[in-house]
Amino acid sequence: MPHIYAVTNVPPEVLAYGMAKYSRSNRSLADNLKNLTEDKAAKFLKTFYFDYGHASIADLAHVAIAIEDISLLAAMEIVDEPLWDGQERSTRYQNFDSSDYYRPETAPSSYDTATHKLWALYHQMQELGTSLLTEQYPRPSDMPEKTYARIIHARALDIARYCLPLNTLTSLGQITSARVLEQQIRRLFASPFPEVHNIARELKKSIADQPAVDLMYQTNQPVLPTLVKYTEADAYLMAVRTIIEPLAKQVPSLPAQAVELTIQAPLLDAQIAQLLYAFGQASYRSCLQFASTLTTAEKQELISQVFSVRGPHDEWLRLLRQAPLQFDLIMDTGAYRDFNRHRRTHKIAQSLNPDLKFSIPAPLTEAGLDYEFIATLSAYYDELSAYSDTSSLPYLLPLAHKRRLLMSMDLAEAAYIIELRSRSQGHFSYRQLAWDMYEALRQQLPDFARYIRVTPPGEFNPFQR
Q: Hey, which of 31, 57, 84, 283 would disulfide with 27, CB 3.0 to 4.6 Å?
């Protein structure tokens, strides 16, 4: 007869120690925990986790963390973790009219002027969207007025969110293992944005040095005093960027479509192309073609350089992982935030570049009411071209801004994403993207695509949310 029980109110590191003891003791978890102290746990973890490299022990310590009053830009950096579990303030359901914004120390006064222009357009598009949707979709007789108003308001926010600047403050909560948390902090320390550096520093401090916020019982101990104590910036990733970035600038950019599907490429070429893609601005097809022009010796030398700077405890770069299907996607940044939450994929996002311009909300175009939106953002982007502080420029891009994302996945995950994101209740921008992904698969792998339960963009219920 199995003996199964839950364990509560145990500090994460003590719990990790107790579970790790299964590999070295035949005693029950309850018996092990009764004899453990935080000092014993710290000593054990230092020996087996840091000295011996048993990283799986850190998978056993989970912690809940709130990260509040950060920019949308920083939130995207935080969420970009393969095993991330959490929630962020939704731009589809929450009105950000009363939110504040992040201001870099070096930003000139024109930074505030640009921000307020986007906020004004955000408010204007809320009003226009509400008016448009109310006229297009009258309230069904059997629907309560409050329910109708809530749905119309949410659909109006789907349009208005295109105008939110990436410096808008948001909040998120996450529950991660200490192992994922350590990897996340190292990656955030390597970010080019000072705000993200500060978040990494405060994140590390909040779990390694400061007492946890305990809403149920009193405690005066940091939540993870040992497992993330020695976390520093990801020097390996920073060194690889130094090697690859100059070469990535040499890649000529070929004409690109919004969705380009690559099924198979020579392994060495694919690895080099993914590195070039991560540190450049060209399409994946352009990177693959450039990689194919290098000699075998040049390819091997480049890969050799990448691995020569790998430290003794560094894992293989996430950028070198392979999967059968690779979708090179161009999407607005709002849709990117949704696609970036899919965990069973390998993702490489290019840096934010004003040259890709912006997307236009489909409901405005379909109603012939997109002139004000296009005119305002076109003039706004023209002003950004003369903006002097390049380090703070990405914060001034709106959620409408287009960016590239390379997503590698297997067929099952592609089907899951297409089925989920094409549904009627989804945001119209990623519904179209999911349909385009399906079409790309249907053309190249029709025997598999026929089994995907995709919802065509034309099938739409405005009251399904």
A: 31
Q: Looking at 116-222, which runs of residues are DSSP E strands? A: 169-177
- As a whole number of angstroms, the distance between CA 208 and CA 84 comes to 20
Are 59 and 177 a contacting pair, CB within 8 Å?
yes
pTM, to two decimals? 0.79
- DSSP structural state of residue 317: P
Q: In angstroms, rounded to a whole number, what is the distance separating the alpha carbons of residues 174 and 187?
A: 16
CA separation, residue 220 to residues 9, 156, 173, 211 (Å): 14, 46, 22, 5
DSSP string, 26-52: -S-HHHHHHT--HHHHHHHHIIIIIIS
Amino acid letter at 18? G
Distance CA 435, CA 310 (A): 40
SS3 (DSSP) at 465: coil
Strand partners, 71: 169
Report which DSSP code applies to 189: H
β-sheet bridge partners, residue 64: 175
User: Between β-strands 62-71 and 86-88, what pairing exists: parallel, antiparallel or unpaired?
Assistant: unpaired
Between CA 296 and CA 210 the distance in angstroms is 52
Positive/negative CA dihedral, 255, 260, 263, 268: positive
411-421 vs 428-444: helix crossing angle, rounded to 10: 140
- From the CB of residue 406, how many other CB atoms can be counted at a distance below 10 Å? 24
- CA-wise closest residue to 16 among 149, 133, 181: 181
Would you tell me how many other CB atoms lie within 10 Å of the CB of residue 174? 21
Place of tokens 């109110």: 9
- Of 97, 133, 131, the C-alpha closest to 116 is 97
Render pLDDT for 87-139 as a digit per residue (tens, 0 to 9): 888 898 889 987 899 999 999 999 999 999 999 999 999 999 999 999 999 99
Write the pLDDT tens digit of every residue in 240-274.
999 999 999 999 988 878 898 888 788 789 889 99
Q: In what order do the strands lie in the sheet with 259-262?
A: 259-262, 325-332, 402-409, 346-349
Contacts of 452 (CB under 8 A, 6+ apart): 414, 415, 418, 419, 438, 441
The kind and range of the H/E element at 261 are: strand 259-262
Query: Taking Cα atoms as reference points, which of 188, 190, 193, 195 lies closest to residue 174?
Result: 188
Q: How far apart are CA 118 and CA 122, in angstroms?
A: 6
CB 205 within 8 A of CB 224: no
Report whether 314 contacts 233 (CB < 8 A).
no
| Helix, strand, or coil (residue 457) | coil
